[in-house]
Amino acid sequence: MTGVSRGARTGGLPLAPGATARATAALIALRIGYAYNWFDIGPALPAIGRTYDVGPAQWGLLAAAFLVGAGLLQVPAGLLARRYGARSISLLGVGLLAVSAAACGAAPSFLALLALRLVAGVGAALFFSPAIGLVASLYPAGARGVPVGVFSSAFSVGAALGVVIGALLIPPIGWQLSLVVGGAVLGVTTVVGVALIPTAAGRAPRRVVGPRERLPAALRYPGTWAVGIAFVGFEGATFATGQFVVPWGEAVEGWTAALAGVVGMMFILPSIIGGPIGGRIAERHSNHRTQFLVATFLGAGVLPLLPFAGLGLALVIGTLFSIAYGFVYAVMYVIPHFWREVPTEEVPLAIGLLNSIQLAGGAGVSALFGAVVAARSYAFGWQFLAVLAIASLVALVLLPPTVRAGAGPPDAAGPARS
């Protein structure tokens, strides 16, 4: 049994306020660039289809390739962060994402593009869970909910920019150069992050690993598995909507690329409202299962209305959907910090595992969505996503109760169990 001291749980990294703010801003900027290079492929799908003579079924595979890379490496990313430090692994990952995303613009074939998107997903995996643990490590318990929520919601800013800017850049410069621009900007941001994130942040812990710890507590804790499985459907729905709303708007609704991009943005950007709210509520209240259920039912419940919506209602649907998932993901990334059974240094590993489960499942959902659209219609596809998002919530029955930060640190009653 390895104890985690109260100080390790409650105290953030002892940095000056200015250094903390700069490090947080750098991580948020990297999160935005990371998401941009995740979603700028969506507006490019029709042009990619014309270049390589492929259709929606292959587009679904292309979307899934990124998720496969991101999903497979989530747990290794957490293990690497545990050994080498969150800062080193997160910066390595975002650098790999920048290079591979830019290289997509030079892909000589569709298979090469698939492979490069897979590598980009690997870079995304190495960045994400170490980076979210890095943000939390900068703040004491009770003050992490908002910065973690903002970091989570920054994904939506980047994703929205990827959809809108991608839609605007592709007509004048082509989809290839559009992807190069995204990768290059992220590369510059990575260099800035290296300069602004202190080397003391996210340093690998010095601890002796005994025989009973060969399988980390984060991998054994049932809450990790419960949350991961419960949101496979919602993860697939968020990714599929982000990638396919623009092509749907152009092909089915007859909107211009710019107008479809604005609608696509509304399925992503408003989650910046849900993120900080979700993070704060998760840290102050312990009814996390209820929080998850209410938000997911709201987000999934509006998707079946999309085939019957005009422009105005589509904007409302997108707004409600994105606020709901922004809330859900903020709660999801805050509560592992209050699981007594998971040592602090294993929180990135816990987040990595639950994210890996979701991304792997989400990749399958995204690929299935493309196949459903090709075989049936977009209308049937949106309904398919809603059903899966709600059905996978049954796994929440396995989620153990968690404490709230306002009631005291998670280990106030004694050392953590592992």
Q: Which CATH C-level class is it? A: Mainly Alpha
- At the fourth CATH level, what is the homologous superfamily? MFS general substrate transporter like domains
- CATH topology, what is it called? Growth Hormone, Chain: A
Q: Note the total helix count.
A: 17
Largest sheet features: none
Number of strands: 0
The shape, in one word, is: globular
Mean pLDDT: 82
Question: Structural class, judged by helices and strands?
Answer: mainly alpha
- What would CATH call the architecture? Up-down Bundle
Give the percentage of residues in beta strands.
under 5%
Order of helices and strands: HHHHHHHHHHHHHHHHH
End-to-end separation = 6 Å
* Low-pLDDT residue spans: 1-11, 405-418
Helix coverage percent: over 70%
As for the number of domains, it is 1
Radius of gyration: 20 Å
What does this structure look like?
The chain contains 17 helices and no strands. α2 (17-39) packs antiparallel against α7, α8 crosses α15 and α11 packs antiparallel against α17 (378-391). It has a single domain (16-200, 215-406), classed as Growth Hormone, Chain: A (Up-down Bundle), CATH 1.20.1250.20. The model is unreliable at 1-11 and 405-418 (pLDDT under 50). The protein has helices at residues 6-10, 17-39, 45-52, 56-72, 74-84, 86-103, 110-137, 145-196, 217-220, 222-230, 232-251, 257-266, 271-284, 288-302, 311-334, 347-375, 378-391. Helices cover 72% and strands 0% of the residues. The protein is mainly alpha-helical and 418 residues long. The longest helix has 52 residues, at 145-196.
